[in-house]
Queue: 3 jobs
Job 1
Amino acid sequence: MSDPTAPVFINGRFLAQPLSGVQRYAREIVRALDRRPGAGRYVLLVPEGADASGLNLRAIAVRVAPGGRGHVWEQTGLAWAARRGRLLSLGGSGPVLHPRQTVVIHDAAVFRHPEHFRRGYAVFHRALGRMLGARAALATVSAFSRDELAAVLRRPAATIAVASNGADHLSRVRPSCRIVDDLDLTRRPYFVALGNLTPNKNIGVMIRALRRLPDPEVRLVLIGAPAPAVFDRTDTGSDPRLILAGRRSDAEVAALLRDARALIFASLYEGFGIPPLEAMAQDCPVIASDIPAVREVCADAALYFPAADDAALAEQMGALLDFAPAPTRIDQGRSRVALYRWDRSAQALEALLARTDP
């Protein structure tokens, strides 16, 4: 068993990347580790120009590791800076030659759905995943992803730990209600879709479902930004009832969720999916595609539709336009949120680190 007082380096590459679900995970896990006993043994290694001030760390030291940014930095500058200790990589990648590394790989999407990615990205990340799968201690975010990674990386599922996402980060913010006025939603019914506008988010089925709704006042608010360097182009259509809200702060997201008729989470494939829990944390109903990871996370607290069936989605949307959600479903959502907390996941990762030889 490893020495619990030995230094542990954290891969801070996520601080140089746009915020999406993976980067959210890394940020919140680091914050949670900072509140754990013995947090002073962690050192967050960041590339040049990365800003860690927003993490508001109290115990974890932040150190710049020179050597550029991106994958080159990760494989060289980070590997060198962390060579004398253990390394925790939270964002799905890490230096392949580091001998004492724990990596969180969030899903098997590049293996199961390479068509959702640009070819070069998918080829590189499949190779990187295989190398890390052969050398590192692994964790992931759900039982579904554990089984998927075990299959594609050809290692026993029991060797992959589960340290889930959470949603309690939205409890730290005060909703910024002005955004509802700014988007002209105060007197309109609206639905929210939250996440980067990428192919696996299945934007098309939401647009087609919107077209099936006759109400000229209803709106669909897409919160997030496209990721053209990773994913192929996503066509968002031209329906005037569609609002492209771009990236928004947590405070704005919380306000939009509180007043929405529902969050629509239409993903074709996910390793976990944070937005449904974020919605449930704001007592917002959830309409979700019926895929395994979402079923695992949401259980009976969400309404489901087949991912390719825009008519079924439109029917669910229409029902929530006509009737308020049952109070029991809101209570079920709160119960699901209570199961997924960042401090519990940080504790699970520490347990995995404790089983890693120094």
Note: The chain has two domains: 8-166+341-354, 169-339.
Job 2
Amino acid sequence: METNRTLGRSGIDVSPLGFGCWAIGGEWSDPDGQPLGWGKVDDEESVRAIRRALDLGVTFFDTADAYGTGHSERVLGRALGKRRADVVVATKWGNVFDESTRTAKGQDDSVEHVREALTASLARLGTDYVDLYQLHISDAGPDQGARLRDVCEELVGEGLIRAYAWSTDDPARAAVFAEGAHCAAVQHALNVFQDAPDMLALCEREGLASINRSPLAMGLLAGRRQDRLEAGDIRSRPPAWLPGFGEGTGADPGWLARVDAVRSVLTSDGRTLAQGALGWIWARSPRTIPIPGFRSVAQAEQNAGAIAKGPLTAAQLAEIDRLLER
């Protein structure tokens, strides 16, 4: 059984795993038609899944203003309703978009945009504060990051946010935010195939929570082979930063072979493949909080079911390293 975790220095108590709300945003794209969502969604099923997760003890939900160009925030806000005070809501800013055409329009890392974006997110979420506000531009300059960190400190003082973080895979950038008193976390990629020892070391050193996106390797560790992807799914036309998938071919055979190599370890002790992958993350550090995505009640139940199974053992982690030859 995995117990609740603390969101870094904030002292905020959260469930040991959160739910990532990218997929429930539905379809959206860049100006050239590159899909940026996970395909079509049923909003009513999304609402049911969020409420089921709440019933199963999940208290942390991570979204972004850009997911579905605002749609994910709207669905999450509607699903939480009167239970808003029972959960910890994280969202992000930095990307700009046209909600009417569901199209991304670029990025804005200006100081002025922070308040504009937060005001819009609060309206869509139907709340008057955000628990964790995250910079969504992973490669923003460190100097500008310092200025944005200072704005976040002002927002904490005004009661509009409780804490903040940077969504980046660069420990040096994360360290810039960590200089702020109310920085509580860093969001970064972490899964069985994409370890992040330097980032985990930073989180330990600075007292930050490690919020883990792509904990199931964009679905490769979810138990399905991902060989039939609809046109509106980002994995059907994967951008350069998305590993494990080929243009129009679905999952990369090499990545599937790696899944098969560790399957028996991850599915030991009655776990599903996804539950084993989440257990690996918990075993890597007591600061980790994986945020698997979901689009159905069944996925919500499987992900939340990992909590009862808890982390893998040190011996299982070592065996996975041996099987992956690292």
Note: The chain has one domain: 5-323.
Job 3
Amino acid sequence: MISKNQLKLIHALEQKKQRKKHGLFLVQGEKNVGELFDSSFSIKQLFATSHYINKNSRVLAEQGLVAITVEATEEELKKAGTLVSNNSVLAVAECQTMPVPQIQSNELILVLDQVGDPGNLGTIIRVADWYGIKHIICSPDCADFYNPKVIAASMGSFARIQVSHTDLSEYLSKQSAPVYGAFLEGENIHKAPLSKSGYIVMGSESHGISLEVAKFITDKITIPNFGQAESLNVAMATGIILDNFKR
């Protein structure tokens, strides 16, 4: 059974301020919690149904999680979590502070400027994982990586992608690799020469790349349109651009 204090902590972790205070975040659902087992994240508490515990007894024992696993009903988990479909397992894990990476040869690093929607950030993390991107650098005003909606939308990819937050202008000003930026008036990405190593900057849907960051873009690129839509969702645009780089 989930105690009142445990329930209070779980609900508190829905807020960024409380996640920073406790250094903890929520991972919900069988798929995402399963990814935690093979990651570098430390699980502090596990709440699961008897069915989940019995089905995964060997894994829980191997991971040393039996002592910190609390049996709960589906109804309790539904009330505790933020997801409608979460009815089997919920984990409380320890946050990590990821260092800002130094680019390696033949590496593409994704840079996100003011991407504030948690669902978009989570989807971008999932897309980046598909295309083999290892690092994402976010501006301080991007959505919080540990937001439950980000974790859920990443579909487990949060465990494989290193996401760091930093001042983008300061960071990009020190780089020598090409810095590509998505602009409506950029060069057609189907025809532009694309490097195997560099930074790909994506801006918010409403404002695009900020003027401060735009100063460090060396190559403006765009996805050509063939219809009447005014713009693309930033996560969708990220996928299209990464596909062109990897093709």
Note: Residues 118-130 form the longest helix (13 residues).
